[in-house]
Structure formats: structure tokens, C-alpha cells
Amino acid sequence: MKFFLDTADVDAIRKANELRMVDGITTNPTLIMKSGKNHREVIGEISKIIKGPISVEGVGLTFDEMVSEAENFVDWIPNAVIKVPMTKEGLRTASHLESRGIPVNVTLVFSPSQALLAAKTGASYVSPFVGRLDDIGQNGMKVVDDIVRIFSNYKFKTEVIVASVRSVSHVVEAAKIGAHIATIPPKIYEEMWNHELTDKGIKKFLDDYKKSKA
Ligand code: G3P
Q1: Atom 10 of ligand 1, residue of closest alpha carbon
Q2: 56: closest CA among 102, 118, 120, 2?
């Protein structure tokens, strides 16, 4: 399973990547806004740290706008993946960019039928938003499970990025289902490392070592 970080916080990316476990990054306009920097600056900084795919999202809604934004992004960094929304214009853009060798991440996917349509464009990635589905009382992980099964039935090359991750158990459930990627907020990534019994165990071993004979 690949781990992406869902953030535009460069310090958090640097820290999380100390053990080289970060396979890619996903950003969106909200995350870029939170970074307090402009798009080009922050994406450039991230690209210097992470060599894997970096999803970047513009604000255009028409084919022409999205293609023009994508051309800027690939000009700025070599590892850009273009996020397009799950709309007819977005999928038209996805087919076009993929045919030019520019990878696309179809975002704001909330159902298996949307994911199926996105995969048929040849998009490199689809991003179902589990947390936002849970927020409205639906089962986000069930949608991921359906999408992974459908893609496997037809051997689509499209990879599933489980997005809108809100807890460690979302990551674990995604892994159990066999989703290719989870894009994880840095705070959740840090939580994945912890267990109180690990801390307790280390303390006990150290205490016992001190008590043992030299
Ligand atoms: O990057 C897209 C997605 O992960 C957003 O998550 O928490 O805003 O629903 P959230």
C-alpha cells in the first residue's frame, strides 16, 4: 500500500518523510490556502522533498480552463498529477491529459458509478472521499470496497486513492480492502505509529536493564 500525505504543509511533509515512507502528496485549494503560500511556491517546495506524484488542483471548471491550468502545473514541477473534478468537463479533461501522458486524479468521487466512469477515461487515479461520506451518514469504506472490486473485475489500471481520511482505522480499513493508496493527514500519520503498550514496554525494559547486574 502506498502512503500519500494529504497536506500542503512543507514542514509536516519534511518531518513525515524522515523515514522515506511518503510515496506521494495530495493537495487541494483548501490545503494550499492553509499553507499561507501561493500555489507555485508551495508546490515547488513540496516537489523538492517528494519525488513521487504530487496531486495539484486548479479552480477551472471548463475543459479549456483545466487544460491550461494543467499545462502550468506540469511546467512548474516534473511530478505533477492533475486533479480534475468528477464532472463531464473534468472527465473530458482527464481523457485528453492522459492521452498526452499527463497523469490525472479524478477527485470528489462519492460513488462506485462515478469511479467507474472515471476509470474508463484512463485516469491514473480516482479519489473517493470516505470522511465526507461518513459525515452525511453514509458508509465511505463500503464505497471504497465496491470501487476496488469493480476495478479488479476489469483490470483497470486506475489506482484508488482513499481520501478524506479522518482516522487510523480509515487507513487500516483501506488496507484490508486492498486500496492502492491512502492519502493521510500528517496528524493521522503520526497517530499510526503509536501504541501505549509500546511506550510502556520500552520503559519496562529500560527500568529492568538498570536493575540488572553490571
Ligand atoms: O484532498 C482531498 C481530501 O482528502 C479532503 O479531505 O478532510 O477535507 O474531507 P477532507
Answers
A1: 164
A2: 102
pLDDT digit string, tens, across residues 77-103: 999 999 999 999 999 999 999 999 999
CA–CA separation, 60 vs 155, rounded Å?
A: 31
pLDDT score at 213 = 75
How many Å is the Cα radius of gyration of the chain? 19
**83 among known catalytic residues:** yes
- Please tell me the total count of domains within the chain: 1
Kindly report the pTM of this predicted structure: 0.95
What range defines the domain where residue 141 resides?
A: 2-213
What residue's CA is closest to ligand 1, atom 5? Answer: 164
CATH code of the domain containing 69: 3.20.20.70
Q: Which helix (H) or strand (E) holds 77?
A: none
Contact 28, 7 (CB under 8 A): no
DSSP-derived 3-state class of residue 86:
coil
Ligand 1 mean position, distance from CA 75 (Å): 25
User: Distance between CA 96 and CA 109 in Å, rounded?
Assistant: 19
pLDDT of residue 195: 96
